[in-house]
Specification:
mainly alpha, 11 helices, 5 strands, three-stranded antiparallel β-sheet, two-stranded antiparallel sheet
């Protein structure tokens, strides 16, 4: 390995570690890492390194979100991917219902995507003032993915958002403010939904557009 390549890899070692841990790199979660992977030369060097351990850089959200995948699939790799896909599928319904609630409760025309902000206090007020939203939140919060046992909106919504930060779908830049930012993992989720739609005809993505469709009716 040349000195230049070695220097580049040392500088991007933290980025490579994030990718290998299964994290999603986007402008919201890691702008420096995102810029590095948007640079063709740096991305190629990282790709060459990953290829040595049967990994490759994958992307979602029109090339704005990066993650690590397998370069070639053997039995062991298929088992890992199958397990990961199963986990995502098990979480799909709670996540889609949450996306619909946020879209309707925030009055947005489109589903939440990377970089969009959700102001928890404002959303909570809308939910508390709307019986249908309160019912939706109660249902969502009691899914196994979130595991709430509370009957209070405040406790339910805070637990849901805390869990979504832990899962990597949201980030909270300022600990003192109840403002959450959507990460690129949501854009990856949409691509998984589209894949399932195309292969299984489940039409899950349509649920995330329910609010817009209702407005048009």
């Amino acid at each position: 390995m040349s000195q230049d390549n070695a220097t580049t890899l040392v500088g991007t070692s933290a980025l490579i570690e994030r990718l290998l841990k299964g994290q999603f790199v986007c402008r919201t979660t890691d702008e420096d890492g995102w810029r590095a992977l948007k640079n063709p030369d740096t991305r190629e060097r990282v790709e060459v390194y990953l290829n040595q351990i049967n990994r490759t850089i994958g992307s979602a959200g029109d090339g704005e979100v990066f993650f690590c995948g397998y370069q070639q699939l053997g039995d062991n790799e298929r088992k890992v991917i199958s397990s990961q896909f199963k986990d995502i599928c098990n979480a799909l319904i709670p996540l889609v219902e949450w996306l619909v609630l946020v879209q309707e409760g925030s009055g947005n025309d489109a589903p939440l995507s990377e970089g969009a902000a959700v102001r928890l206090t404002e959303l909570q007020t809308r939910i508390e003032d709307t019986p249908a939203f309160r019912e939706q939140l109660a249902k969502i919060s009691h899914y196994r993915l979130f595991g709430s046992t509370s009957s209070h909106v405040d406790a339910q919504i805070k637990l849901v958002f805390k869990r979504l930060v832990e899962l990597g779908y949201l980030t909270k830049p300022n600990a003192d403010k109840q403002i959450f930012i959507a990460t690129g993992k949501l854009d990856y989720l949409y691509e998984v939904i589209r894949f399932i739609d195309e292969t299984e005809g489940l039409s899950l993505e349509a649920q995330a557009e329910t609010a817009t469709q209702r407005d048009l009716v």
